[in-house]
Amino acid sequence: MKHLENEKGSAAIFLLWIMTVIIVLTLIIVNVAKVYAVKQQASTAAQLGAFAATSEILFATEEAIKDFDEAMMETLGEGEEYEALWDEIDERKNSYMASGSGEERAYIKALNEMLPSRLGNPILKEFFNAKFRVDAALSTKIYNTVRTVVRENEGNEEHLEVFISKEKYRVEVKTDSTYETIAVGEYINSFTKDIPQKGYGPELSFLEYVLN
Question: pLDDT by residue (tens digit) across 129-174?
Fold first, then answer.
């Protein structure tokens, strides 16, 4: 009888050990999956931030071009005509859209193709300088926009970096998201770790002629 009780006790201990191992292995798998989920979360936040910053740059570019066109129209004498630069860019954009490009992609193609040669015009360059270099409002607006997007997508705005690559002339955003383990007593300790990721906007090659 005593032998039978010992066997039952051993079986219970063994079963408890098996259950503990299964629980620990399950939580290890869950923690590993959580790492990849947090990494994807940081990547999404960075990528959406880069796209948002790119949109702000494109809006500022449109404003600079339209301000230039307006100034040129004001200098015209009687009977003189002026073809607005914005109309030319819009026409080029529409031709790209007719070939299958999306609207924003077509707009970027038109800017990259047309602006480098046009920015040799010192008057146009001054309008871009005023928008991109002299006035700090654009930089502040870009940063605040990216920060909002990163925060909404559960990235850490405290570690946010936003800059324009001088090699590819595109917006690059660096941020991270915080991973926290699911702890299991003495088997898996509780700790947190920031997982960094980068996001990239499309190449805006015309910025080489704006920023230099």
Answer: 999 988 789 999 999 999 999 999 988 988 899 999 999 999 999 9
- Matching residue, tokens 């109309």: 87
Name beta bridge partners: 104.
Answer: none
Closest to 34 in 3D by CA, of 175, 183, 147: 183
Cβ atoms of 41 and 149 closer than 8 Å: no
Task: Please tell me the distance from the alpha carbon of residue 173 to that of residue 43, in angstroms, as a whole number.
Answer: 10
Q: CB–CB of 31/184 below 8 Å?
A: no
**171-180 and 161-164 as β-strands: parallel, antiparallel, unpaired?**
antiparallel
Place of tokens 């960075």: 46
Q: Does an H or E element contain 75, and which?
A: none
Residue 40 has which token pair? 């994807």
3-state secondary structure of 8: helix
pLDDT in tens, 46-84: 999 999 999 999 999 999 999 999 999 888 766 678 889
Q: In what order do the strands lie in the sheet with 192-200?
A: 161-164, 171-180, 192-200
Q: Are 106 and 93 in contact (CB under 8 A)?
A: yes
Q: Distance of alpha carbon 18 from its chain centroid, rounded?
A: 46
